[in-house]
Predict the 3D structure of the following.
Amino acid sequence: MRTLIKDGTVVTATDTVSADVWIDGDTVVGVCHPSLRKTFAAEREIDATGKLVLPGGVDVHTHLDMPFMGTSSRDDFQTGTIAAAHGGTTCLVDFAIQGRGQSLRAGLDAWHAKAEGKAAIDYGFHMIMADVNPQSLAEMKTLAAEGVTSYKLFTAYPGALYSDDGQILRAMQQAAELGALVSLHAENGIAINVLIEQAVARGEVAPRFHAATRPEISEAEATHRALCLAEIAGAPVYIVHLTASRALEQIVAFRDRGLSVYAETCPQYLFCCTDDIAKPDFEGAKYVCSPPMRPKAMQADLWRGLRTGHVQVVATDHCPFDFKGQKDMGREVFTKIPNGMPAIETRLHLLWDGGVREGRITPSRFVDIVATAPAKLFGLYPKKGTVAVGSDADLVVWDPERKQSLRARDLHMRVDYSPYEGRTTQGAPTHVLSRGNVIVENGKFLGKAGAGRYLRRAAFRAL
Ligand SMILES: [Zn+2]
């Protein structure tokens, strides 16, 4: 089937042009001047007058169907990918987890089983290495050949996902060898555990102490350490969910020395802050995630990083837990509140409304941050992340005037609250296409669970 998206303005990370987009089957076959319309025929036309045509969002940080802190993130690969599609995201990279004492293979197979037959958009997997040892290091080679070209390690969560410096260095050396990218959750988990123990002993058990016990310096220190280890290994490194101004200073310093260092932040760190986690009546639990909420003043630094290119990506760290039945496991003490927030559906809305409309970033920078840069860094470009001849027809027709309520009941994520309850954003998709198929039209889901395909990702290439 041939589809024509006509009279729109195509926005990529580099260009803004008035052009038709022609799709044949699942591929973009033309970004053309309207005068060429008489040359071809289309079976289906989408009128994009007054609208923008963007590449579908690429979310490289999601946790669907993830067991954590004695429970599981609420969205699975069906509900989560459908919610993503409603928000204009057409591709995601989720985190498969190696259990301690387990092989990488067992972890990856488990995540394939979670996604198969359920995902409504295309997906890939990063591998979380919770047990770096000679076997798992050797296994990285097999997995990289299957398109798992990124690995995540943690300096946080001692006794669970934590790796020590030697383990991180070895994984980075192996990744460099294989053309893979190591990403880090950078917080000093050992120091944080001491602060948590002391806070709880003092009776400081409310949600806001989750933030107080994970100070900015613990993120800055672990970020610095991760960047040093990457320099020693001669490997590129990607810091996930960067939140702290002083951690950003580390990124800037290493990048200015020419090192292959990248950083991601998330909408919750651009739009929420320590005022939210301090809300009374346990409401603050809705904002418990790690790294934690930071003082509002730090948001300006993150926006500056996005503008200058020191921060390349906004991904979601989508990991929703219900307020009733999950978050409230921690009513007595914040250490039992599952860490994570819903975000997969609202990323583009928030970034457009709070970023482009507020004049903080240009439309092209928006496209780069939410689609192009993540696709490039994680081996998905140019199939994903841009509008170009030969790319997958993962496209969003974006109406800059369309309003979207961010109330929980107006969204599609399987979670009983919204961190942005009461907020309405401007700028939203009218059509979302996945490989040429319209999967969302004016707020109605037309796709199919199970239609999403596993993506074998290419080796890392520097941005
Ligand atoms: Zn995460």
In short: The pocket of zinc ion is lined by residues 61, 63, 317 (CB under 6 Å). The radius of gyration is 21 Å. Residues 274 and 295 are 5 Å apart (CA to CA). The chain has two domains: 2-54+385-400+426-445, 56-377.
